[in-house]
Each structure stands twice: as C-alpha cells, then as structure tokens.
Design brief:
Elements (H helix, E strand, L loop, with lengths): L1 E5 L5 E9 L2 E9 L2 H11 L4 H8 L11 H15 L2
Antiparallel strand pairs: 1-2, 2-3
Helix pairs in contact: 2-3
Length: 84
C-alpha cells in the first residue's frame, strides 16, 4: 500500500512510502539532502518497516530536535499503527 507523509522540522518535506506485508518496497523523499536520502532509502528498501522505524527513531540533525531519518521513523510508525 502507498502512503504519503508530510514531515515537520526537516529540509525533506514529504515521503511517499510503499509497504507490503510490513516490508518497505519503496521510499521517495522530496527535498532534503539528495545523496543522503537516496542512501537511507536504498538501505531501508526490503527491510521490515518496524525495524527501520526503531533504528531511525531519535536521530537528530545538528541542533534540531529531529532529522530526515527520524521523520521517516515517525512516518513508518504512523503507517504501521494505522494498518493494525
């Protein structure tokens, strides 16, 4: 199933995420640091959404209270909670 998540507090303003049976099939970021986000999305592809959410949760970008990986974690947790 495809989902759209609008981030807060990061340069990346949106993630389009496709999850099937709890596994991340695709993540498309909008904005942010292109190379870093491409790497994060490539690493997450094929992994359990719950595992990625746990690993990325709480990561900060400089002195900001969040980061693109942390926002992806929020997105994945929201998706998983809504799919229950």
């Amino acid at each position: 199933m495809k989902h759209t998540y609008h981030t807060t507090g990061t340069c990346c303003w949106q993630f389009d995420i496709e999850i099937e049976n709890g596994i991340i099939k695709e993540i498309k970021p909008y904005g942010g640091c292109s190379g870093n986000l491409q790497g994060i999305c490539a690493l997450a592809k094929g992994m359990k959404a719950s595992e990625v959410a746990n690993k990325f949760s709480g990561i900060r970008c400089g002195n900001k209270p969040t980061s693109c990986p942390d926002q992806l974690s929020h997105a994945l947790k929201e998706i998983l909670d809504n799919d229950k």
